[in-house]
Amino acid sequence: MKNKAIITSALPYANGEIHLGHVASTYLPADVTTRFLKLNGVEAYYVCASDDFGTPILIQSEKEGKTPSEYVAHWNKRDYDDFTSFGIDFDFFYKTSSSENISFVQDVFNKLNAAGHVYEKEIIQFYCNNDKKFLPDRYVKGTCPYCKAVDQYSDLCESCGRVPEEISDPKCSICGQTPTKEKTTHFFFKLKNFGDSLYKWLDENENLQKDVKKYVQNWIKSGLIDWDITRDISWGVHIPLEKYKDKVFYGWFDNHLAYISTAVKFLNDKGIDGKEFWNSADIYHFIGKDIVYHHYLFLPAMRLGINSEYKLPDYIPTRGHLTLQSKKISKSRNWYIGLKQFLEYYPADYLRYYLVAINPYSQDDLNFDWNEFTNRINSELIGNLGNFVNRALGFTKKAFYGIIPETEKYDDKDIEAENKIKSLSSELGVLMEQNHLDRALKKIMEFSTFFNQYFQHKEPWKKEPGTTTCVFLSVNAARSMAIALFPFIPESSQKIWNQIGLDGKVNENKWESISDIGIKSGHVLGEVSPLFVKVEDEDIAKYKKQLGPIE
């Protein structure tokens, strides 16, 4: 692990609200990791941007009587506000329509063109005679030629993850009619020329998930296809050639270049050499499994095509999709929960806790279930964590007027408890570095369980020998948990810190200080109150009813 890092997430499309499915696989894991890295002394920056271009935005802005710029500005602000309410702490949130990104994209194209990595080609493209327009990928749906899944977009099969050369049984997704084929000229990127170098990069990068790497290498072996990087629409980054100034780049050509342009702008504005920082830092791209093809093939190939002027990613943490009550999330069927809506029901930390706890570092899909959410919050967050912190601090308040007592001679159970504290930071750190965030959170909860049992075993309320040592170590355990929990549930972490009576922000501490015995005898606690409020069954029943009808 380097002492510098840049963290990105797949960019949110500026065409609608953020829902639970968006945050589960990308933004929350990235935020948790960034907070951990910062606690661990890494100069880490989490940057993101709204993805502003493409036909859907053009069409929707026309429907609403807005310019595309006005439309995406609205969603850029709304997305940022929703993320912030959820505790996603971007260091910088920008936009792909920024002048910096437009210039950078055009510069990359010019360099790829000069190096012979792109070429012009007359192609036959789907054209809708009913809507009188060429149909970009997201406006053609059909059957995947590889896995035969139906109702797939022509630029990405969500079932098998591959990019079809040509979709079968095509239909215009605007009007449903079968499109015709017309001639147009597009630019293509010579992706197939990078097969060997991509395979070598994948082989040598030990940080990438082995299962993802394996099937991407199989894609390379089966033969890559050159990549159409331009589109016949008006809203996008325009081709920097006079002859083709009416064409724009495909969204997937420009949007992940915004990782670089956004980071460099942010760093340069801070007085840091952005390019130098990028190339000397660990680079993380957090994604969902549906965009593996783009991040493991297109994105690195483009960087290779400009002589790795900006280094390739070190980590591409890839996770599965979130379903809702075991059904695929669908906005059109009202089978989704908006992030803003959820945060009107419960604190952000409830959702952060639940989504991390159920989300392994794998491509396995995860499921949001209202009943499981209720059980986990009530039994784990409240019954375990909240219970321990409240009883340890509350008892100290009641029995010792909130003043941490002097310790007595340690018995075997006390020694075991102290060793639990002293080993926690390293045990958690290994899991966090490996991106097993769910396992790290589980280990913190096991630590809390141990101290609940330790407190119960010692029975300090009986005022027998060893009582003061139990209180001393229990309060120190609560302090350790406050720091360890900060990446996961930052608001609750700060509450614990304040109730212990400690000054400043919990995240001003170093990760390794988790294992310090940081509370000394004579320390005075702050005000103590329950951390969490129970989730009630009648509320959950009401929220279930607000979803669309079950098919």
Name a few traits of the molecule.
alpha/beta, 4-stranded antiparallel beta sheet, 18 helices, 5-stranded parallel beta sheet, elongated, 551 residues
Distance between the termini: 48 Å
What structural category characterises the helix and strand content? alpha/beta
Main sheet: which strands, in order across? 3-2-1-13-14
Largest sheet properties: 5 strands, parallel
Q: Mind sketching the topology for me?
A:
Layout: E1 4-9, H1 20-39, E2 43-50, H2 55-63, H3 68-85, E3 92-95, H4 99-114, E4 118-128, E5 133-134, E6 140-143, E7 152-153, E8 168-172, E9 180-189, H5 195-204, H6 210-222, E10 227-228, E11 230-231, E12 248-249, H7 251-254, H8 257-269, H9 274-280, E13 282-288, H10 292-305, E14 318-319, E15 322-324, E16 327-328, H11 339-345, H12 348-357, E17 366-368, H13 370-400, H14 412-433, H15 437-458, H16 467-485, H17 490-500, H18 537-545
Parallel strand pairs: 1-2, 1-13, 2-3, 13-14, 15-17
Antiparallel strand pairs: 4-5, 4-9, 6-7, 6-8, 9-10, 11-12, 15-16
Helix pairs in contact: 2-3, 4-8, 5-6, 8-9, 12-13, 13-15, 13-16, 14-15, 14-16, 15-16, 16-17
